[in-house]
Specification:
This protein has 155 residues and is mainly α. The chain has one domain (7-153). Helices cover 61% and strands 0% of the residues. It has 6 helices and no strands. It has helices at 7-35, 46-68, 79-84, 88-96, 106-111, 132-153. It starts with 6 loop residues before the first helix and ends with a helix.
């Protein structure tokens, strides 16, 4: 009979998988944001797109790794909130190229005031479809660890 894996080890493994997937996917996401048909013909230099994608992967990846290696009770935000900050990288390029901001509804403007081009991902799958499963698995594992820990505290 095979024993179940330690939930803390499982959570750490899933966190690493999610962060690695995000880091791998961010450069392509930045590129797709620039190439989006609504924003095409911007005159953005391809080398700048590649550099912005690398910066997004490095900087957002570092912040995600820090968050995901922090104890679950000490995490100050969720990984999707950090990932949403990646809109900065394509936004800088589009803005520098003179692309006018897109129309957004009042809720979007209030929740994401710096997202001039309506790029904010609603889920991990918006960055890359392959991230949906790891994102859900990590969230479930975190909830399980949190429940285990706090059930013990109340006994």
């Amino acid at each position: 009979m095979e024993s179940e894996p330690d939930p803390y080890v499982r959570l750490a493994d899933l966190a690493a998988e999610l962060v690695d997937g995000v880091v791998a996917a961010l450069p392509g996401w930045v590129s797709r944001c620039i190439a989006d048909s609504r924003l095409a013909a911007t005159g953005v230099v391809e080398g700048d797109v590649v550099a912005a994608g690398r910066r997004a992967a490095d900087e957002v990846g570092e912040r995600l790794r820090t968050l995901m290696t922090t104890d679950v009770d000490e995490q100050w935000t969720g990984p999707l909130a950090i990932l949403r900050d990646a809109t900065l990288y394509p936004t800088e390029l589009l803005s520098a190229a003179g692309v006018p901001p897109v129309e957004r509804d009042a809720d979007a403007r209030q929740m994401f005031p710096d997202d001039l081009y309506d790029l904010t991902p609603a889920s991990f799958a918006d960055i890359h479809p392959d991230l949906q499963g790891p994102g859900l698995a990590w969230g479930a594992a975190k909830a399980y660890v949190h429940r285990l820990r706090h059930q013990r505290d109340h006994r």
